[in-house]
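Fold it.
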Amino acid sequence: MAFKLRERVFELLKEVPGKEWAPQDLAKELANRYPDECQAKLDRSAALETQDELVQQLAREIFGSRRRWEAGYATLRSAGKNPVRLRWQNGSAGMPVAEDVEQTKIALNQILFGPPGTGKTYQIVEAALEVLDPTFLANQVRESGTDAELRGKLKKRFDELEAEGRICFTTFHQSFSYEDFVEGLRAVVDDSGQVQYNVEPGVFKRLCDQARTSGAVLGVGVRSNPRIWKISINGTFGSTELGYCLAHGEARIGWGRTGDLRQEERNEYYKERGSNDQNTLNAFSREIAPGDILVCIHSAEDISAVGVVSGEYRFEATVPSPLRSDYQHVLPVTWLYKDLHLPIAPLNGERSFTQKTVYPLDRFTWGDLLSYLDSKGAKPVKPMGTAEQPRLPYVLLIDEINRGNVARIFGELITLIEPSKREGAPEALSVQLPYSKKPFSVPDNVYMIGTMNTADRSLAAMDIALRRRFSFVEMPPRAELLEGLEVEGVSIELLLTTLNRRVEALLDRDHCLGHAYFMPLWGDTRIERLAMIFRQQILPLLQEYFFEDWQRIHWVLNDHRKNDAEDRFLQECPADIDELFGEGVSVGRRTSQWIINDEAFDRIEAYLGVIDHKAAAESHAAVHEVLYEDWLVRKLVSGSIEVKINGAPVGSTMRALRDIAARLAVPLHYAGGGKLNTRALGQRIIQEIEARR
């Protein structure tokens, strides 16, 4: 029993005219009124287990149809199906349109699943915006005049967010690994020609690092992807200079006799310094930029403080008492963490600090450092940011998530992506990554949205650990989106519905055909476009589904019930085994061959016959026919061309037309060079024969 969502919505709207419905409320009412149909839908779905999940799915389907219902409002009203306009109270399936659209109801991990061609990848644009900018999404849905206008605005905003680094897109495949997703070793050649193996973060870790440092920490002046520098202020912890700097928001180093390092000329004192000292002075005065991070040491093994550089380098001619007189090189610093006593080795590849006063720390990122401090319970001097500066959400989009080896790709992180195990949650967990040996946790502002093709692997065959940690949103074929679309009298909605009923009967609902294959017909309703879709997409997909079991494909296309062989997409030809292999050779049960009838793709009767073979037979009446020698060329009511010779149908209409064209000197190509199809060539031949009479 199919749930006829569109019909049921119209029935309800007519009963309660003028009521302002939210998709969620409408879905609840439908579930109460039609329990048998809802239960049947629940039984058919592998992802829906409870009544609440079914209501959520119905709400999504109702909201997803909003553009088509609004566009067809005038027609529906004149037909009496929908006497009042459907008022969209919600900006999404469960969220009100308001200036402060909330994100609390959006799952952190979700997968859009369904057969090929149901718009899963297309839908991720809206899914990402529902997380990142729900107010913009809701406003555009209400204000955009057409689907094309809406899509253009949403895609533009999506691209902007991707350019900001808040959206990351990847595709899983058989070779995708943990090293690509989390972190791995990469071989690089240094300046001396030696090969080194560096630990490089993968796509997921990079996004997590960026998400962890967003929002609140930006309010204290940390720049995007800051460099991290080690600094020792007059040795290790306890010096007068270090205490003064921490108290007064500064970082200082000695060698004051060099003078102001902003000057291009260097004095003799500077030139007498060793290379390490010169590198330190240049880094402090020229390379460290506002927004970079300083890690001040407690000892050779421990961190004492962490701060962000808040201004430009300066040189002080007079040093405040009681500091050493040569500590004249100054950087303004906002010290974020003080009084630390934490080992640097877990972050720095198990290495201690060296004696050099200032140098970059390249083995870890700002995100790594924040995660490490959080895991050790370190508290900032004051909260970084305010309640008005929450961490911005980030989205990882994973296309074809079921094509990768999930256990191999996620590794130990499969546990950390659970909402209850995210950073900041009461039961938060962190792990030590295998290559970098750094602690890692997943921030609570990282959303994961995947797409899953059920024809590649069914939901039931998915990794149980993955299924338990993701919310699944079913995206079935939606033939109703093709309502009113016709190609020369063939209802595309009915064509898709009929094909899917047969596929589901022979296989299952995971292997249906998606509506997206036929959506281009809205802009081009010529039979040539439909033929291209069937020839290049539908038939190859059926071949894949049925492992080239041509007999069952023959059944799906209803070819076995079509009276006219020219209307059959697939034709069965008996094989002469004795001629092929000689007498006495047994080749088993398969004694026939299947051929694809190219001419059927250009005949509208072939598509009518998929829906109803009787309707195809009725369409064979001729509206025009001409006789040339022994050939009778007929133009049918559908526009198709048929050729008979001595009263019997020819084996190939196109071959017969080419023979006639050769005799009449009718060209076989358009002026632009393209080949004429059966219809176009037949029409030209009819015109030429009549012109010669």
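Residues 527-545 form the longest helix (19 residues).
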